[in-house]
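Archive transcription. Copying these from loose printouts into the bound notebook so they stop getting lost. Printout 1 of 2:
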Amino acid sequence: MSRVPWAGLLLLPLLAGATLPLRAESMHHYLEHQTYEDVYYLPSPVWLEHLSLGHQEALADLIWLKALVYIGDEFLHEGDVGNVFRYADAILHLDPDFRRAYAWVGTMGLYRPTGASLEDGLRTVEFLRAGVERFPDDGELAWDLAATLSYELPALTEDPAERERFRALGADHMQTAARLGAGPDWLALTNATQLSELGRTEQAAAHLEEMYMLVDDEEVRAQISERLHQLRGHVRAQALERAVRGAHESYEADYPWVPFEFYLLLGDRPV
C-alpha cells in the first residue's frame, strides 16, 4: 500500500515534462488568435481616489504608465484613441499638478491615426484651459492652448463665424504666450496682425510696445518698430525706441550678467 503514493510522486515530473510542449503550443495558439480591443478597465476617478488609500499621486503615476502603453497600442493598431480623455480625467483628478498630463492630452486629443472631430478639439481645449489656470506662468501651456484655438479648431469646422470666434479666443492666449517667452520671436508680429484683423488695433499696438523691449532678435525688433510707426505714428514710436535703447545701454553697463527680463525688475523702470 505504501508503494502507490511513491510511484505517483515519481510519475509527476515525467507527466510535467510531457505536457510542457503541449502548454507551449497552446499558448502560442492563444496569442496568435488574440485581437486588440480598445477597452477602458479603470473605475471612475472618484472611486480611484478612494482606492488609492491616500496615495493619489502614486496611483496617478501608475495610470500614466498605463495611458502611455494604451496610446502606443492605439497607434500600432490604428485605433481612434477614444479613451484618451478618460485616462487624462483619471490622472488629473488624482493629481491636478501633473503638469505633463495637460500637455500630453493637448497633443493626443487631436493627433490621432483616424483624425479628430470638433468635439475632440473642444474637449482638448477644456484640458488645456485647466492646465493654464493651474500653471498661469507656464508659457508652453499657454502656447499650446493658443495654437489649438487659433489653428487646430478652425480647421475642424466649416462654419466661418465659428472659425473667427476660435481665432479671437486664441489671440489673447497668444499674447500671454509671447509675454511668457513661449513661441518664436515673430509671434509678436503675428499677434499684432491677428488683433488688427479682428479690429483690435489699439490692443495690437500695446502688445507690440510691450514685446519690443523683450524680443532679442534685432531683425524682428526692427519689424516691430516699423509696424509701430504705422500704428502709433512716428513721434511715439521713436520715443519708445529711445527708451528701449537707453534701457539696454543701462543693462549692459550695470547688470550684464543677469537676463534682461530680470534686469527690468532690478534697474530703473523704463518709461
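Printout 2 of 2:
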Amino acid sequence: MINLLKYYSRKDVQKEIVEISQNREVVVKYGDKGYGKRPDIIQFENDVYELVKKGATSFAISEERWKNPLSIKAGMTKKQLDELRQGWDFIMDLDSINFEYSKLATHYILEALKFYDIKHISLKFSGNQGFHIAVPFETFPKKINDIEIKNYFPEGAKIIASYLKNMINEHLSQAILEKESINEIANKLNRPKETLIKNNLLDPFTLVDIDPMLFSSRHLIRAPYSYHEKSGLISIPINPNNILNFNKEDAKIENVKVNLKFLDTGNIEKEEAKELFDKAIYWHIKNAKKTEEKVISKTYELPTFLINPEFFPPCIKLLLEGVKGDGRKRALFILLNFLRSINYKYDQIEKIIIEWNRKNYEPLRENYVTTQLNWHKKQEKNILPPNCPVRENNIPLINQQNYYTDLHICMPDDFCKLIKNPINYAIRKQRLFSRK
C-alpha cells in the first residue's frame, strides 16, 4: 500500500499545497470515508501532515479566491458571494476515456491561449485521465462592460471555455482522425458512428469532455501535488510545452519532483489576457443574438386565443416563481418571448414581468426591465423562446449548453416528450383540454 503519510511529510509537497490554498476554500477527502467539513482552510504546512495522520488522502481547492473562505455559507445569494469573492482563476478541466485524446485536446487549448500572447499559463495532470489548464486572475482585465471581473463568475469562465472549444474544434477533429478513423473509434467505444458526427464532421467533444456548464460557484479541483484515490497517482504540474510527451510514470508517488508551480503569479504583465476576454465575449454576444433573432418557424402555428397559465409548461411555471441564482436576464428573455408568442397583450405582459421580478433573489434594475419591455413592444414579429434541450427518454442529456438546463428549470413531465418548444407545449395542451 502507498505510504501517504511519508509522501505528505515532504516539506516541498506541504509548501506547494499550502501556497495554492491561500484565500481559497479547501475540501479534504478521507479516502472512502467521505469528505471533511465545508468550508475549510489550510494555513500552515504542518496542517497537511496532521490531516493525513487523521486519514486525509487528498485535497481540493476552489477556483475562486475569497476574502475569508470560512465566511461562506450554503444558500448565499450571488450578491453576497460577489462581495466575499476577491477573484477567480480560469481553470479548464479536460478529461477523456482515451488519455491520448486528452493530451491532444489539452495541446490545442494551450496553443489557443498562446495565440493570445498569454504567457502565464499553468498546466497539471489531474491524477487520472485528464488535465487542468489554468490562467491566473492577475492576467485578467479589471472590468468588462462595467462589470468587475471578480463578479463575472461563473459567466465569464463559461464564455471563455465555450470560445476556446469553438476555436479548436476542427483542429482537434482532424488530429484525432489522423490517428484513427471514425469507424475504428466507433468500434473501440462500441457506439454507433452517427453519435460521433456533427455537421458531417467528427465531433471531438463526444470523445473529450470539456464542459463549460460545469463552471459554478464554489467549484473545486484537485490541489497540485495531491493524491488521486482511483489511480494512485499524484496530480503534478507539467511544463505546457511538454504536454504531448507527458508520461504518467512521472506522476507515480515515488517519482514525484516538486519543480514546477501551478498558477504562478510572478512577473505578470498587466491585463495579459484582455484580448482573449474581449474576443470571447464578442463571439458570445454575436452567437447569442443569432439565437435570439430566430423568427418563429412555419411549423409553429401561433394561437389566436389567450393561453391559460394552467397550461404553461413546467419550465415556464418554475421561471415565474422567480430566479434563485444566476440567469435573470436570460429568464427575462425567455418570458417575454413566450408571453408574446402565446397572444398576451403588452399591459398583461408588463404586469406579469413586474410581479416576476419582485420574486427574484435580487430584482433586475427597473430601468433595464422597462427598456426590455419597450423593445419587445416595438417589434412587429414575434420571436420564439429558445427550444427545449435534447432529451433521451424525456431526460435532458448532460453536457449540453441550453437556457433551460443552465437555469435548472428543465423538469419535463410526460407531455414534454411530445414537444420541442415551450410554445408548442402550451398550445397543444390547451387545445387538448378544449377538445375534452
